Amino acid sequence: MELFILVSVLLLLLITILLVIRGKIISNNLVKSPMVQEEIEKISDFIADIKMQKRHYFRNSQKEAFLKDYEVLYRKFRSSSYRSLSKISVVREFREIYEKLNDLVRQWNDEYVSAEMNENDAFFNNIDGKSLDQQQRKAVIVDEDNNLVLAGAGSGKTLTISAKVKYLVKKRGVSPKDILLISFTKKSAKEMQDRVATRLEIDVEAKTFHKLGLEIISASRGIRQSSP
Asked: What whole-number percentage of the chain has pLDDT above 70?
């Protein structure tokens, strides 16, 4: 009886060892496959691009592009046929980043905004002779695809816009020709343009929504649209 148990244990041990060896052989053969090698190179590119992008503000459109472009590859490396490759460090890192990208982007952006505030403290302390508060500084630094900033009368909207223009030109290297300020009224548009051009010495263009719309219609139709 004892001999039977001993033989059974040894057989189970032998089967386990053989399965492990078989798994390693399959894994090694899979890794050596030209197709898998190419896919691992794409994974390396993903990680490198992510690390490059996280140095700046990570926009939502950029995050969604990463998730879309690498979705098929992610699903493939999650599949049972690729499970043996999960021990490869670059594959493991790829899966961890992809799965947590939403949370990671929020964390990286918070860190970026905080670092920019600290690094440019003197800059934000003197915008047209005034100092920006924390909310204004964040509104200036955040570089999302679309930013909605809610502010009441007299809360420093024009100052914040002026700071945004100055920050983009002086700190981010954006050309003033690529910046357009838009307002509802001619008075506020002129005020913004005069304030930025005269006090900050940055030549940007400011228009009303109505004027911009007329210019777009005129350009597309090749005729001058008269104001109602």
From this structure: 83
pLDDT of 30 above 80: no
Percent of the chain with pLDDT over 90: 50
Number of Cβ within 10 Å of residue 214's Cβ equals: 16
Contact present, 132 and 140 (Cβ < 8 Å): yes
Note whether 166 and 127 are within 8 A (CB): yes
What's the rounded Cα separation, in Å, for the pair 176 and 168? 9
pLDDT(139) > 50: yes
CA 56 to chain centre: 8
Give the predicted TM-score (pTM) of the model: 0.79
Going by their DSSP bridges, the two strands 205-208 and 180-183 should be labelled as parallel
Q: Which amino acid is at 65?
A: A
- In DSSP notation, the chain reads -HHHHHHHHHHHHHHHHHHHHHHHHHHHHHHHSHHHHHHHHHHHHHHHHHHHHTTS---HHHHHHHHHHTHHHHHHHHSGGGGGGGGSHHHHHHHHHHHTHHHHHHHHHHHHHHHHHHHTHHHHT-BTTB---HHHHHHHH---SS------TTSSHHHHHHHHHHHHHHTS---GGG-EEEESSHHHHHHHHHIIIIIS----EEEEHHHHHHHHHHHHHTSPPPP-
